[in-house]
Amino acid sequence: MYRKDGNSYFIVDAHVALWDARPENQRNIHGKQFIDCFYDYHRNLSPESEVWSYEDYLYQGGERLMKDLFTDGYVDHAIFQPAHLGEFYYKGFGQTDEASELARKHPDKLTYNHNFDPRNGEAGLDQFREDAAKFGLKGVKLYTAEWHGESRGWSLTDPWAYRYFEACRELGVKNIHVHKGPTIRPLDRDAFDVADVDHVASDFTDLNFIVEHCGLPRLEDFCWIATQEPNVHAGLAVAMPFIHTRPKYFGQIMGELLYWIGEDRIQFSSDYAIWTPRWLVEAFVDFQIPTELAEYAPITTDQKKKILGLNAAKMYDIEVPAELQISDADETATGPRGADETADHLVGA
Amino acid sequence: MREAVLRALDVVIDPELDEPITDLGFVHTVDVSPDGDLEVHLRLPTSFCAPNFAYLMASDAKDVLVALQWTREVTVELDDHHDSEIINTGLAADAGYRGTFRHEADQDLDDLRTTFQRKAHTAAMERCLTALLRTDPSRPVEELGRVRIADLPDDAVRDSLLRRRETIGLSCAPEDVVMVDHLGNGYAPDAVPMALRRARSTRISIDGNAHFCRGLLRTRYVDGGSESLSTPIDLELTFSGRNAQS
Q1: Domains in chain A, ordered, with CATH?
Q2: Where are the CATH 3.30.300.130 domain residues in chain B?
Q3: Residue A205 burial by Cβ neighbours in a 10 Å radius (0-12, 13-18, 19+)
Q4: ipTM of the shown complex
Q5: Which of A186, A223, A249 shows the shortest C-beta gap to B211?
Q6: Mean pLDDT, chain A, integer
Q7: How confident is the model at residue B73 (pLDDT cuts 50, 70, 90)?
Q8: Strand pairing category for B38-42 and B27-32
């Protein structure tokens, strides 16, 4: 819980990881390249006071995670979104045993989501069913740029992916977090293309699709798809830290999201351990869209409360004190917010 | 000679960011031998930048350098990328895109390039029209659909639009309407506000990515990031690119 100026904010960090990128876990050079890329993100977008040493960055462990999120970071509940990356790391990147064990010990504070890879076919489907029962899964994290033998990416519309989504439906794993990564087969296509989200969201209207880093670097394509699909949500992983380095750009991202998809479908996350939640929560509560961006309305306190926690809490049935609840906005389900009169032009424009 | 090489490389554009690779700082080293052999190394903000765009920039770079009359042997290599080996082998053999990525590539990259040229046009159009709105906030948005090229102030923002219109095959006559899709079709007045909003999201996305990539490149190679200790520094970053206004 974060309190400021008489307001209380219930915080759900909807995308955290407990990773191990130490050299002894790196299978090859790509394991080093991957964590180095994250470390450059971290160094580039963090305030100086929040920059970790490279050694700290390689592995945090459960104790430090609990401290950074819950003791220091104001977080009430956090959701693990592990990336497997088995081609880069011997034991995988996200640490399944340690993270799921932590979540088992602290069910009030942590939810463990797992992952699947449709290229594992029938055997992977059996494994997913086992995992869903073992971890009590409510959601999965899918990384479409995962390498797998000869293949270096997959699409949500692959026939096998549909088999897995049918299993999600059957098992009640309703929340599908999608991380669009930078390689996809065939390589001819735009690697960050979010068009496949459009197809699955239409075909599985009873599942929620949370697109991490709100589709960045294809914010425009994401907004266009999400405004038409009421079950597509924006995760703010990677977008959040721009609040410090580039507040105007962050204001534009928030302005676009609030316009195209509205205040009820945006979820805060720190993307721990790429960044830590404390400074992000403080900065977001203090944030206002710069006045020079006159095309956007100011962000209200209630909108901030929803984004910082209430939206994800609702999706995951996380208990929130009654006095902190806020009702849904009276807004259109599809089309730009407050622009009902122009929604007819959406299709084919 | 080094300067001549850089000027030649000015025409190589990062399709995703719509800026020359020379402005972006992607040209790492240029070595010219006395008899005209040339070796150029490129580098990108992360090891995981999209390999198809990486290939596109590297092969475009090789093409313009081979076309220079004084060059003999031309070597272009991409450093520190997860696909450096594949791409550099393909470039050395002039294997083309499909020859380089073999089973991972079904067709060439023309469609991909076209997609991003259209986005670049959309963003340039939005910059021009939003500039008009900022000059005169009382102007009804619907009327922007009637603005013609001759109505735009003669400045860098307009020049940038004209270049992008030319790239995607649109005419640039003074009487041409500014707000058009990639086929040159205009918008009915009631469709203009939404189309402009959509164009704005494209512009914000491209500008945002360009700034992020510049920052990451700097962190990676200059400010103590993952490669800065092991890599010689020969980087001139320009922070006054034409998109810097936002």
Answers
A1: 2-320 (3.20.20.140)
A2: 2-108
A3: exposed
A4: 0.89
A5: A249
A6: 93
A7: very high
A8: antiparallel
The CATH number assigned to the domain with range B2-108 reads: 3.30.300.130
Residue type, A262: G
Closest CB from A187, A294, A346 relative to B101:
A187
| Shortest CA gap A148–chain B (Å) | 13
Q: How confident is the model at residue B76 (pLDDT cuts 50, 70, 90)?
A: very high
Closest-CA residue of B relative to A37 is B46
pLDDT in tens, A20-37: 999 999 999 999 999 999
Q: How far is A223 from chain B (nearest CA, A)?
A: 8
Stated pTM of the model: 0.91
Sign for the CA dihedral angle at A292, A296, A297, A298 comes to: negative
- Closest partner residue to A190 (CB to CB) among B112, B200, B207 is B112
pLDDT in tens, A215-270: 999 999 999 999 999 999 999 999 999 999 999 999 999 999 999 999 999 999 99
* Site from A33, A44, A221, A289 to mutate, B interface, most B CB atoms within 10 angstroms: A44
Which chain B residues contact residue A29 at CB under 8 A? 82
Tell the burial category of B142 from Cβ atoms under 10 Å away from its Cβ (0-12, 13-18, 19+): middle
The minimum CA-CA distance between A68 and chain B, rounded to whole Å, is 23
> Which residue matches tokens 């700097």?
B218
